[in-house]
Amino acid sequence: MADTMNILNNPFLNKGTAFTVKERKELGLTGALPAKVQTLQEQADQAYGQFKRKSSQLEQRQFLMTIFNTNRTLFYYLMGQHIVEFMPIVYDPVIAESIEQYSEIFTRPQEAAFISVDDQDSIEESLRNAADGRDIRLIVVTDAEGILGMGDWGVNGVDIAVGKLMVYTAAAGIDPAQVLPVSLDAGTNNEKLLNDPLYLGNRHARVYGEKYHAMVDKFVAAAEKLFPESLLHFEDFGRSNAAVILEKYQDKILTFNDDIQGTGIISLAGVLGAMNISKEKITDQIFLTFGAGTAGVGIANMLFDELVREGLSETEAKKHFYLVDKQGLLFEDTEDLTPGQKAFVRKRSEFENADELTNLEAVVKAVHPTVMIGTSTQPGTFTESIVKEMAAHTKRPVIFPLSNPTRLAEAKAEDLLKWTDGRALVATGIPAGDIEYNGVTYNIGQANNALVYPGVGFGAIAAKAKILNEKMLADAAHALGGIVDPDQPGAAVLPPVSKLQEFSQTVAQVVAQSAIDQGLAGVTDAKKAVADMKWEPKY
């Protein structure tokens, strides 16, 4: 009986009613299931019918999580059939609600590893227990200090790691039995959580400094020891730690920080797509990033590297960038600059009115950006007057309000088109439907990291790459930016989510080939390596 229940309760092995009569006999399942043997498609149709009957998106997510917890094959088969509809449910924006309510609705840990800053001697044991003998090739780890645009959500943030891994499998085809979500619980500064009797994480202020970094180092060492062929994907770490951790490890192990590098890749891909449409050169653009945190600086770095690759000197390339944060334009003497911000500061002597450049509108009037990217989490800050001011000085303004979830977006795509008389080239951080304006149907690209990180990570793993470097990331951005149809009226700057699986394969092959070309791979045939590793949801 124990073995029977183990099979039915193991989401990696369970087929539910799809076990054949022969399998039921062999596995000791005779009489443990109703008589009818269903096909995978019949199970999927049944599940989708239930999904559609749920009254809210959060309920739909909880229902899908029940399937995920019960039968991974069915979950991914179903998601593959409804990827556009399911993406916002299993990931952003609905995952934000799930994170906020994680402790209240907790039922299962979803095969995650929970590591506590207060029990660092158990880190290796925790990883081993969670993996349960599985061949782990991909780890998504978060300390949840910077969840989406929501801030510090402590142990609740493990949901973001689970969600990221779902997208990896659905988009690129990594075997769900080979992934591991990890929560680094360093405490939380979220008073709401600390005062919530149901909160499941460490009930103390967030730990920083030496003790925190000791936890990260022990985690990395244990992960490398137990899972030497794995990619470590860091997700939603706070501004003070994210870049520090990436810089420490990116040249030593196979690692990736989605907030810094993923956001950078997708933004570069979107800008390249916009250039294909406008027929302009990227080296002629003036870039303004509004929100100079981890994501904003990551975007600036990726775009800067592209300008250098296109032939500009580093000094010349730097002149094309303006970073605006809550203090206004970042200058050399701005207080509390991060190392990443310091690379892009301006001199006050460049401006006659430097002291007045304390808000976005003043900066836009002063510098006339041609590309404006928002990662500020400040809703509605790309106002009509700012957008019209920008559009007055460039033929095709490129405007990406990337903050998410929906309530934190800097602007709506519809407004940006209206305020620019249809000239704006827009990408958003959250899904946006087609927009009809002046007889043209505008497709709005979603600058969602989900379009790029699955292919990047999968390609690096398939290639058995030693590291994941800037050249591989840039090659991924070019692969994405080159997929759009520039001559279609209202064309999107990025390919649609409906083709996520298709272009994830393209990106994976490009990244694997880049690793091979640089002598950083453990394989010689990129296409074969990607194809051999791809998992399909079938019984």
TrEMBL record:
Entry protein name: Malate dehydrogenase
Family, as annotated: Belongs to the malic enzymes family.
SUPFAM superfamilies: Aminoacid dehydrogenase-like, N-terminal domain (SSF53223), NAD(P)-binding Rossmann-fold domains (SSF51735)
Lineage top rank: taxon: Bacteria
Cofactor(s) demanded: Mn(2+)
All residue ranges annotated as the Malic enzyme N-terminal domain in the record: 68-250
Signal sequence region: none
Residue span, Malic enzyme NAD-binding domain: 260-516
InterPro entries membership: Aminoacid_DH-like_N_sf (IPR046346), Malic_enzyme_CS (IPR015884), Malic_N_dom (IPR012301), Malic_N_dom_sf (IPR037062), Malic_NAD-bd (IPR012302), Malic_OxRdtase (IPR001891), Malolactic_enz (IPR048182), NAD(P)-bd_dom_sf (IPR036291)
Record-linked PROSITE patterns: MALIC_ENZYMES
Keywords: Metal-binding, NAD
